[in-house]
Amino acid sequence: MAAANAGAWDDAILNLEALQAADPGYRDADGRLADARRRRDTVALLAEARRLHAAGEWAAVLAAGEQLAALNPDEAGAQEFIESARAQMAGAQRQRDADALLTKVRRLHAAGEWAAVLAAGEQLAALDPDEAGAWELIESARDRLGAQARAETLDRQDRQAVRQLDSGQWRPALGTLRNIGMIEAGYRDTADLLARARHELAFAGELPSEPALACTISMPDAIYAVAFSPDGHLLATACCNDARIWDAASGEQLLTVRHAGAVNAVAFSRDGRRLATASSDHTARTWDTTSGEQLLTFSCGRPVWSTAFSADGRRLLTAGKGRNVRVWDTASGRQVGEVRRSGLVWSAAFSPLEYLAATAAGAGEVRLWDAADGADLLFLNHDDAVNAVAFSSDGHLIATACNDGAARIWDSTEGHLLFAVQHSDQVQDVAFSLDDRQFATASCDGTAQVWQLMEPTDE
Q: Where are the domains of the chain?
């Protein structure tokens, strides 16, 4: 049996067949012959399975592996071939299914069937999480569905506001129009409808001719900046190196964030989740308003005096020591634009109408300009340096903070002065609440004051 031990199975089989023919019962010749044939077939099947595996013929690999396992259950290689072939075949089927789904999703996308795109896209993402095209199409479908829902909501609320105005329901109409403005500033003729509602409320005596002081927050040092959260529940202030968030109703301090230099400005994003701060440490920063976690740092290379979010929260304006107003992307922190002014810029603000922005200069001049091309549209002149500007949520009012101790509210369309309130020292900042019922002032007299423009309603 030297031939069998050496693995030369064909020779061994010939010898065993001769031995069996000569003496069938000699030393279990029948059993050894069967074992030699099984081993020979195992070696042959293993070689064939390896060849098929190298060629990627997975169905044939699976068949060879299953034959091998049936022939020799103890052959470890048989199960490896079976598992490998099954995995490859399943992967190939998944890829075929993914390709078919991707084709289907693209067809649905081209047809504008957004709900179907979303459903098929989510199936594709579950099938192949690494398929970048699936996520792009899902996001596109979500954006389109969101835009459709938003358009339907805006249209429904616009018609509701018109009905309310036509029936003399001025306060509910104002609330409906405010909701429209929160969704899309400048939608259709809401600016005109807001003006009509305000006019009727003022005529009815529900919009005071002079602002009324609602509350005061006192600090031991000058307060340089103030901002309302969009829901009006929070008030942010800047004092020394700190920015603080307060409960606007109770005056309770909720959160403190810190810079390495004086904090000169604060601003909430439209969704209220982020607070932007501008500092003399040459940076503007964004923070999570719930946890106080720092999100991004915008390195400006010089002291930053003012900052403001765009209405959609995707852009941040910064202005500081110098004549340039910079525009930043709030997702990446990259600078995406710059506008050069003719004089030093102390403050900058976006109008909710998007096309309009304003800057305040130390010479006492406020400029309203086109945010797209930088063209000047309107000038508001003061007798002393203007430290800050802010727009109301409908864009029709603009407030200014002046070194003469006054905060003023102007009509942003014609430039008419409407109201003025007085502090005992320089006013450093002004801010409107999102519903435009209140505005806040920050002063070097160590106080932040909230002023009532319109009485609260039950809407």
A: 212-452
Pick the CATH number of 212-452 from 2.130.10.10, 2.60.40.10, 3.40.50.300, 2.40.30.10: 2.130.10.10
Spatial CB neighbours of 6, under 8 Å, sequence gap ≥ 6: none
CA–CA separation, 245 vs 254, rounded Å?
Answer: 6
Q: Which residues on neighbouring strands pair with residue 237, listed in sequence order?
A: 226, 244
Give the Å distances, CA to CA, from 261 to 158, 218, 257: 46, 21, 12
Residues 6+ apart with CB under 8 A from 305: 264, 265, 278, 319, 320, 321, 345, 346, 347
Q: What contacts 429, CB < 8 A, 6 or more positions away?
A: 223, 224, 225, 226, 227, 238, 265, 387, 388, 390, 401, 441, 442
The pLDDT tens digits of the residues spanning 21-76 come to 666 666 676 777 777 777 787 777 888 878 888 888 888 878 888 887 887 777 77
Residue carrying structure tokens 């048989």: 78
**pLDDT tens per residue across span 315-326:** 898 887 666 778
